Amino acid sequence: MDRISQLPESIMQQILFRLPAQDAVRMSFLSTTWKSLWNSLPVSEFNFYMESEDGLHLKRKRSEEESVTSVDESLRVLHQHEDQKRIINFRLRGTLHKKEQASDIDRWIKLVIKHYVQVLELDINKLFNSIDKLIPRYSFPPASSDLGSLVVLRLNSYCDISKEALKQEGMRFSCLKELSLSNVDLNGLTNELLSRCPSIENLNFKLCKNLKDLRLCGFSKLKNVYLATIRAHSYKIEASNLQTLRYYNFLPQKSHLDLEAINCSNLKELIMEIPSGEISLQYIETLLLKFPFLEKINLSVSYKSTKLKILSHQLKALTLNFQDDTMIKKISIKTPNLVSYKYIGHEFPLSFSLNSMKLEKVDLTVKPRSAIGTSWFLHLQEYLGKFTPKQGLSLTVFSPPVIRFAREELREETSSPVSKIKYLRVCLIRSSIDHTALIDGLLWICRPITLYIFSVEKNLAIKDLYKKLMSYGETNLLCCKDNLIKCWQHDLKSVKIEGFDGIKDGRRVIGREGLARRGLLRNLEEVSTIF
């Protein structure tokens, strides 16, 4: 019989708060009595920002003192209820103005860990000036600290891992499930740190220094890994239960994910973004064989083969973002269970096939590098005809340097019908050309339910487009009487102008929906913006 559980609640609370953090957390799972006691304790959350001022030194010094006082005053409640409070979240953000501030941060962390803090987040910036020179990074963890209650640890920016504190006896993160480090200096202690995190499930390393030799082996609970780097380092990942791997490599050298160093047979999602990396058809085939249970693939790389073939019965979502796709002539995707397909590139392949009866979402983005003409629109029409998603498809087009479209050149015998798409998004990025031809050509070969035009620059030349849009519903449209393809203006149901910026009688006119009549809008001499 558990006699301790028969003690008065006040005594049980004192016992709980005098145990090491990891033991106290474990005690809360021993019985319903201890769990009820743990849950009955009042909880607190703290979110502090150490104010940073860029003015005079005295002003900055006063701000430092006020920030420290503010945090101390807020944490006073912990001293008043030493044995009666636990902390869910402690977040500290700010700038290190001088190295002495590190002792204040140490003091605050040691205080909150006495109350079994579960989520600890530090977002520390650095300050460099002529008075303090370069302030040293904040070293974590503080010496002689018990961090056994931590479930989530996030360190951002100007922090480093302390070798002395990490090697002290009993330093373990027994309950830690999420470790997120961003721009942190690991001092070559990556594996030493991970060896003290037996329960880790989510691991994020973003642009960390001195990551060096990463070994993720034997972590049976590891589910998600995010690895972003700008430095060369070796790695090995062996995790049988890993579900998601996100790998970002921004090295200028051409490199890609080393598949031989990854042994995760149950991987379900792979995101690989390598702007300078090149992959081939053989690499794709090896990837699919090595990870047979992949359901989501997102590749952002350069592709250096003429053919691309993807064969998978498990795949449900596929994203292809090719930095260089000039060599691709044929794409064949045989994925019967594919639900979502996204393609981003500069050109559409000459030959394309995709078989999936479950396809619901298609998102296509094209960024032409050179001039386009009517033949480009016809090729796009054939390409769009390959898709029959249940919910419709989305098309995003970035305007090229030169655009030419003539409906007289449309082939009446074209085998591809006008595509019905859900969204058509057009990004206008050059103000020196008239984008009317681009919009006109796109609307001739596809019929979007919604057309969304957005621009990077103001003062776009869209006067002719504006007039075309405002002429919808007129009965004397004879633009397509000699063409088998029906003009898009006949299918246009309504136009909603949320706002406009134009010129009437030599004066600038700005208005919003409901503030101007349609006749006024259509008779503007010049239109620079529609929003």
UniProtKB/TrEMBL annotation:
SMART domains from the UniProt entry: FBOX
Domain of life: Eukaryota
Gene3D superfamilies per the UniProt record, alphabetical: Ribonuclease Inhibitor (3.80.10.10)
Domain spans labelled F-box: 1-52
Matching SUPFAM superfamilies: F-box domain, RNI-like
PANTHER family in UniProt: F-BOX DOMAIN-CONTAINING PROTEIN (PTHR34145:SF28), OS02G0105600 PROTEIN (PTHR34145)
Protein name: Putative FBD-associated F-box protein
Taxonomic source organism: Prunus yedoensis var. nudiflora
Lineage: Eukaryota, Viridiplantae, Streptophyta, Embryophyta, Tracheophyta
